[in-house]
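Open question from group meeting: does this chain pack into something compact, or does most of it stay loose? Before anyone orders reagents, we agreed to write out a predicted structure and look at it together. Recording both the input and the output here so the notebook holds the full record.
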Amino acid sequence: MCGPAIARDRRPRSWLSSGFAYVVRWYNPRLDPAQVDAIVRSVLYYSTTYRVDPRLVMALIAVESGFRVSVESVAGASGLGQLMPETWRAMGINPADPVGNIYATIRVLRGHLDRYGSNLQLALAAYNAGHNAVTRYNGIPPFRETQWYVYNVMTLYRHLVGS
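Structure tokens returned:
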């Protein structure tokens, strides 16, 4: 099951998906229930497919876009995962499609987790600043934005995990 089929799957939601729906609505109360459901189902499906903790994905998207589907940064990043144009073009997705954006976000994050041996902080720094910056500085780059980003995603992730 992929793409729009996820949004049409009407099986009962688990406590985890209900909690995720609450998080999405808290960040973006303007989304209609069908959009919230499609986001949550996509996060759960692709997180399972690519072996990424869905709570990490939820934290990343919350920090990246606040679950605003069509937000665009001054740098040109767009969508829920704030993907740069070269990324979504290379992956053949439409950044305005929430399901495709979540798919690409999780694929990119999985690549960084593989590169850094599942070191969450380095993977997040690479997601934000690029893996070349992490390599150049042999760790989290000394950029205020990147340090803030890693701190905020990790703080929210720990909250979602319950630790």
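Observations to bring back to the group:
Residues 20 and 40 are 6 Å apart (CA to CA).
Confidence is low (pLDDT under 50) at residues 1-9.
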